[in-house]
Amino acid sequence: MKRHQIIEIALIIMAALYNLGVLILSLLWIFTNSFSGIKSNLKQLEMFDVNENVTYGLFLAGALGGAFYCLRALYQRIGETYTPIDGVEVSGSGMNMKAWIFWYVYRPIQGGVLALILLALTKSSLMEVNAGDGINMDSYYTLIGIGFLAGFGAHELIHKIQELIQVLFAKSKIKPSDSKQKVKENKGE
Q: 17: exposed, middle or buried (C-beta count within 10 Å: 0-12, 13-18, 19+)?
């Protein structure tokens, strides 16, 4: 086996273990009492005046969605790259893990951050989540579900945020020549 193939396989294993770790940690934190000591210590930190269940749970739900997406993408790429086609072995050169490793590490973190941002945008009424009648945005499980979806669908959520930015911060439709006239009018000239 060549050196670049060994490095490729090592990076694949590292990405898989990292994302499995994020997935397991998130599931244990969100749905069990495995970290009850740490959780109670976080509640005692007065400098962070936040709802720990929502904030940490929501962040980890977003990270869970991002890690799940990464693992799904990883096994799909492994399947496409290393599956023999018509009896011919594939060399594995199609993965290019050196180029993608940052994405595999970053995606769960991005998912967690986007989950928190989505909550802030919905709570501030800048963005609406239409998931049906009677959705309780204060329910722990609704927030976990939305956090997971934010992490799993990070790319789509980023596009929604870009649309929101374009609407909120749209360029003025006043022509430069009109703006000079408006300034004169406002000065009373």
A: exposed
Q: What is the DSSP letter of 87?
A: T
What does each of the 189 residues of the chain score in pLDDT, given as a tens digit? Answer: 788 788 888 999 999 999 999 999 999 988 888 877 776 766 665 555 556 667 778 899 999 999 999 999 999 888 888 776 776 665 555 678 888 999 999 999 999 999 999 988 988 888 887 766 667 777 888 889 999 999 999 999 999 999 999 888 887 666 666 666 666 676 665
**Best CA proximity match to 97, nearest among 120, 74, 115:** 74
Structure tokens at 32: 């069990």
